[in-house]
Every structure is written in C-alpha cells, then in structure tokens.
Design goal:
9-stranded antiparallel beta sheet, 8-stranded antiparallel beta sheet, binds 6-O-phosphono-beta-D-tagatofuranose
C-alpha cells in the first residue's frame, strides 16, 4: 500500500462523519477530522496540523499563502513538528534547522473517536537509512492529534535503539491574529528568557508580552499556560502544555519576513508563534526502550 493512496487511506482509516482523507495543497494527503465541536486538517507530510476551527470560531492557526507544499520541504504555518532538535542541533550543525521529521511523509497508524467524543488520528515515523545517515539512532516517533472543542497534539519519542540519545524539539505553533500590534501574550510574566535578537542575552519578562519588532525569545523554566489576548477579535487562545519547561515566542517582523520566500512580506502582521518546546537546557536523555512525551493543548475562550 502506498503510504499516501487516498482511496486506501479512506478504506483503512476513514471514519464515517468524522475522518476523511483527501488531496490537500500541492496534492499532499491530508486527513480532515470533524465532530460537532470542532474540525481540523492534518497533513501526512510532517504529521503537520494545518488548521483547527472550533465551532463558531475562525481558524486558530496561521498558514502562509506562500508556503511550500512538497515532500522534502517544510510547511510554513500550522504546527510544525521540530525533532530531534530545536533550532540548530547543539553538537551537529549539519542537521537541518529544527530537525528532519517535519519534511518527511508520516504514516497513519490509527484513527477513531475517543470516549470523550474527540476525534483522533495517530501518525508515525521511524529511523531509516536516510535518518541514520544524519542522526545515528533508532527511534519510533508518534504524533497523536485529538480534536474537539480544543485540539491536543502529543509527540511521543521512543528510543528503539540500544544507546541513549538526547532530544530537544518543539510543537512550533503559528497562531492567526487580527493584528499582532494589538495583541498581548499573558502567562510568562516574571519568566527568564534568552533573547535571540540580542545575542541570547538573558532577560526577565515584565508584564504581558507585546510585539513591536522582531521577537524571538526562549522562555525557560516554565510549565505555565500562555494566553494570546486578541482584543480586536475578542478572543483568547490558551496554550497549555505537558513535558515542556520552555516556551518560545516568535514573530519575524518586517525584514526577516521579507527574506523568507515562503512567508508573505506583510504576513507578519497576522501571526505569532507560541511554541511548546524542549529547548535551551530543557532537553531529554531517552534511554533504550524509554519514551519522552511533549504535548500542547490549545483552546479558544471568548474574552468576557
Ligand atoms: O522558533 C523560532 C525560530 O527558531 C526562529 O528563530 C525562526 O528560525 C523560526 O524558528 C522558523 O524557523 P524555520 O526553520 O521554520 O524557518
């Protein structure tokens, strides 16, 4: 069976009224998950959540109009799965930025409707000769997406080799905004962060985060929820997490957006990344047969 044959995917993993597979952008296979509280689209390339729309709300995630949609390239927007490293690998700079699993086709392992009524899909990938040439370890990686009123994405790392390895990574979520200049991000006040636009200078967050220029911050030693307060749209997006002590906040602003071919020059105004990460010192040694789980849970609240 072709990993991406839509008819076979629907035959094996389709769920009436809840899970259907179809050709998405660039002809890439996507799964559409629907229940009466929300809907989402997940691309098999990178196990990449493209869209999530709770009932009565607008799309939660931002997706660039200039994004690539082709195997071997990263999708710009939604929730990229960054693994086995966040940003540049600490000991092997030859690895792709944010690792190599977001540009690979994943396979469908399971679909279904959970006891709570949430619709789920589980995708998997594992080491092969290509990955071992880049990163010499045996691994099994799973992403479980659960969709209802909220969406949760869990990245499960399992060491299937005979040596321990160290992983960092992120669920690198891009959120759609009315206007980034009018948004505040709450939950990280008092947290220390490394400021990537200031040579990783260590600083401490005072009050809510406002985005007024290129912003690229790694907040450390925090398990806190983060809340994006979009006053213009009257909505608050809550990002909760498990298995993570670092949260990354990023907006490329004008110059960096203009330098990225897969990012529209003015699209920086409509997005911000709030990433559930394992970054900086928040890395995990995973022994043979052991697992690490990283989860982000995203929900929309109406500002009272
Ligand atoms: O998470 C923030 C960041 O590390 C930024 O520095 C920027 O590089 C962003 O990720 C996007 O990276 P990408 O490889 O997807 O272009």
């Amino acid at each position: 069976m072709s990993l991406t044959d839509i008819d076979i995917l629907n035959e094996r993993f389709g769920v009436a009224d809840h899970v259907v597979f179809m050709d998405g952008p660039g002809g890439l296979p996507i799964a559409e998950l629907v229940n009466d509280e929300g809907e989402a689209r997940i691309c098999l390339l990178g196990a990449h959540v493209l869209q999530f729309k709770p009932g009565g709300e607008e799309q939660v995630f931002w997706l660039s109009s200039e994004s690539y949609f082709e195997e071997g390239k990263e999708i710009r927007g939604g929730i990229p799965v960054c693994w086995p490293c966040f940003a540049v690998h600490p000991t092997d700079e030859s690895l792709p930025l944010h690792g190599f699993v977001r540009s690979r086709m994943w396979e469908v392992l399971r679909t279904g409707v959970g006891g709570d009524g949430c619709v789920e899909i589980e995708l998997g990938t594992r080491d092969d000769e290509v990955t071992r040439a880049m990163w010499p370890h045996g691994f099994e990686l799973r992403v479980v997406v659960s969709v209802g009123k909220a969406i949760s994405v869990e990245l499960i790392t399992r060491n299937s080799g005979d040596e321990a390895f160290v992983v960092s990574g992120a669920l690198h979520s891009y959120f759609a905004l009315s206007d980034v200049r009018l948004v505040e991000i709450a939950g990280l006040e008092g947290c220390e962060y490394g400021d990537k636009v200031d040579s990783m200078a260590k600083k401490r967050q005072e009050g809510n985060i406002r985005i007024i220029d290129e912003t690229d911050r790694v907040y450390v030693d925090t398990a806190a929820d983060t809340v994006i307060e979009d006053s213009l749209s009257g909505r608050r997006v809550r990002i909760s997490k498990k298995g993570s002590r670092t949260t990354v906040v990023w907006n490329p602003w004008i110059d960096k957006a203009a330098r990225m071919a897969d990012f529209g020059d003015t699209e920086y105004l409509g997005m911000v990344c709030v990433e559930t990460a394992n970054a900086a010192d928040d890395v995990y040694e995973v022994g043979p047969g052991e697992e690490h789980r990283l989860e982000t849970i995203i929900s929309v609240e109406r500002a009272e």
